[in-house]
């Protein structure tokens, strides 16, 4: 049975990848095909799905800081959006009921509001996957989107307590003691090293946090999230997240397959779910208007609204709970499962082209901006810099340090990770915050003095996009980039980048040459 799941997931995932669509769309399709073939889900599949979601929430926590959740643009936009969209979707449902559409006619205001509430959530799984694939987790819109998702999770916990009547144990107050044992947790992570014990430690903390919170009558997923947040400032947080990434992705396949096992749809269910899917246009518009009113830049609001415009797996939980309590007909579970699947597909396809969409419509989008943006959304011009390093991860940081040692402070560094930039600025290093894929940034940045831009970005597609935007902003200097594979190098060269460094191959060459110099004196040039 397990091999059959893997077979369907592999074939469908590969099939959609060949037509340049995200594999998760194929996994959703595989679930419906398995259901249609008459196969039954087992407890193993459910366990895999639950572990995947738990690890995903733990990973979110590793990238979040509590102060980010306290920002007005996070909590105010989340609560406003959920309240307005619940009432808006409820009104639409009642209106469709008056038109005698199937499944809507039996809804009253209470049940229509439940459906609206279920649709107000955005998918943590879908958003995380898209942000990870596009290497945008640390960007301004990426962090904003994650903050909104976490706030939605907090609302979800409150709803579950109210709907199920399961009040957490009074002993749940003991969970605040995790703050006291945080130094011990940090010490455990330190002792785990860098090998196989590091991902095992991550699994232990994520699942342990789940079980601990569940033991005290609190939603277990929240425990995994809290444990991740407690470790967010640890030096190994990023390394632990990377070590868990493949495990998490594999387990999440179980989640996508399980959606297809919800039930087999009828034609009327498919039609109703498509109507509900169209409502994400209103969800996008509401997010965009609220975020721009919070004085966020048009680009940040547009990208965040686009990636949050989908329906959530938690909506299925809300509807399932409503069905079990007799508030909704069981057909609603199938309808919403289809709408969630369709919304995943639409968001996945659109978000892959979101930067291109923004470039084409930026003048219209900017009209909604507040005249006075938030301080952290303002651009900073590097002073007296001839060389700019974009991306200050391991490779970019190494290049930045080496160039600074060679030519001094005429080298500037730029990165989309605000916390990384703050740490480097505290050390008096010549760096500033900026997203390389931000078309507004390159338009407003004076690059006339810069002779060389080094693009040390992890994804070849992102590097190509930045290079294109640099040229469109009339940058005339040299562009160098890094690549991991030969086919990426060919693509980058073809996009107009002047030099591409394959750091796997050429790092080995440099290592060999410098090591050889230890035993052989350098050859002097013949006069």
TrEMBL record:
- In this chain the RCK N-terminal domain maps to 387-502
Q: Which SUPFAM superfamilies match?
A: NAD(P)-binding Rossmann-fold domains
One Pfam family matching this protein: Na_H_Exchanger
Residues that span the membrane, as ranges? 7-36, 48-66, 87-106, 112-131, 143-163, 222-238, 250-267, 273-291, 303-326, 332-351
Superkingdom of this protein's organism: Bacteria
Residue ranges annotated for the Cation/H+ exchanger transmembrane domain, each copy included: 6-347
Keywords of this entry: Antiport, Ion transport, Membrane, Transmembrane, Transmembrane helix, Transport
Question: Where is this chain primarily localised?
Answer: membrane
Give the matching Gene3D superfamilies. Answer: 1.20.1530.20, NAD(P)-binding Rossmann-like Domain
Record localization: Membrane
Membrane topology, record value: Multi-pass membrane protein
Q: Does NAD show up as a keyword for this record?
A: no
Can the keyword Membrane be found in this entry's annotation? yes
Q: Which PANTHER family match?
A: CATION_PROTON ANTIPORTER YBAL-RELATED (PTHR42751:SF1), SODIUM/HYDROGEN EXCHANGER FAMILY/TRKA DOMAIN PROTEIN (PTHR42751)
UniProt similarity note: Belongs to the monovalent cation:proton antiporter 2 (CPA2) transporter (TC 2.A.37) family.
Q: What protein name applies here?
A: Cation:proton antiporter
Query: From what organism does this protein derive?
Result: Marinomonas vulgaris
């Amino acid at each position: 049975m397990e091999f059959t799941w893997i077979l369907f997931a592999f074939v469908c995932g590969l099939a959609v990848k060949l037509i340049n669509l995200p594999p998760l769309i194929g996994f959703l399709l595989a679930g419906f095909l398995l259901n249609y073939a008459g196969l039954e889900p087992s407890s193993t599949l459910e366990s895999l799905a639950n572990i995947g979601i738990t690890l995903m929430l733990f990973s979110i926590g590793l990238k979040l800081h509590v102060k980010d959740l306290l920002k007005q643009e996070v909590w105010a936009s989340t609560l406003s959006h959920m309240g307005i969209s619940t009432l808006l979707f409820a009104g639409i449902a009642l209106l469709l009921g008056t038109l005698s559409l199937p499944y809507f006619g039996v809804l009253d205001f209470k049940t229509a509001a439940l459906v609206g509430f279920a649709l107000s959530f955005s998918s943590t799984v879908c958003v995380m996957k898209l942000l990870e694939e596009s290497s945008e987790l640390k960007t301004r819109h990426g962090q904003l989107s994650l903050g909104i998702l976490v706030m939605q999770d907090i609302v979800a916990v409150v709803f579950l307590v109210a709907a199920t009547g399961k009040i957490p144990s009074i002993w749940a107050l003991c969970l605040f003691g995790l703050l006291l044992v945080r130094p011990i947790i940090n010490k455990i992570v330190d002792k785990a090293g860098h090998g196989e014990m590091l991902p095992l430690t991550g699994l232990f903390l994520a699942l342990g946090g789940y079980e601990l919170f569940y033991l005290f009558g609190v939603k277990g997923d929240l425990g995994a999230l809290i444990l991740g947040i407690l470790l967010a400032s640890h030096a190994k947080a990023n390394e632990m997240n990377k070590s868990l990434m493949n495990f998490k992705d594999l387990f999440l396949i179980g989640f996508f397959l399980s959606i297809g096992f919800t039930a087999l749809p009828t034609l009327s269910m498919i039609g109703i779910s498509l109507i509900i899917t169209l409502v994400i246009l209103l969800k996008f518009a509401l997010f965009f208007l609220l975020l721009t009113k919070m004085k966020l830049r048009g680009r940040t609001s547009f990208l965040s609204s686009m990636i949050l415009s989908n329906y959530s797996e938690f909506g299925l939980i809300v509807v399932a709970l409503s069905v079990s309590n007799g508030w909704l007909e069981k057909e609603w579970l199938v309808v919403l499962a289809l709408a969630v699947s369709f919304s995943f597909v639409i968001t996945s396809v659109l978000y892959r082209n979101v930067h291109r969409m923004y470039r084409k419509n930026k003048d219209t989008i900017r009209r909604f901006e507040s005249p006075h943006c938030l301080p952290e959304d303002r651009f900073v011009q590097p002073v007296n810099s001839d060389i700019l390093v974009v991306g200050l991860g391991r490779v970019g940081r190494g290049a930045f340090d080496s160039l600074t040692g060679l030519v001094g402070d005429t080298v500037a560094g730029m990165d989309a990770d605000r916390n990384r930039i703050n740490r480097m600025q505290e050390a008096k290093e010549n760096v500033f915050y900026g997203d390389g894929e931000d078309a507004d940034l390159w338009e407003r940045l004076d690059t006339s003095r810069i002779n060389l831009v080094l693009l040390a970005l992890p994804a070849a597609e992102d590097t190509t996009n930045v290079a294109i935007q640099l040229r469109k902003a009339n940058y005339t200097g040299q562009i160098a980039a890094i690549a991991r594979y030969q086919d990426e190098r060919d693509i980058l060269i073809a996009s107009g980048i002047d030099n591409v460094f394959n750091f796997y191959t050429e790092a080995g060459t440099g290592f060999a040459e410098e090591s050889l110099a230890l035993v052989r004196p350098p050859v002097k040039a013949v006069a």
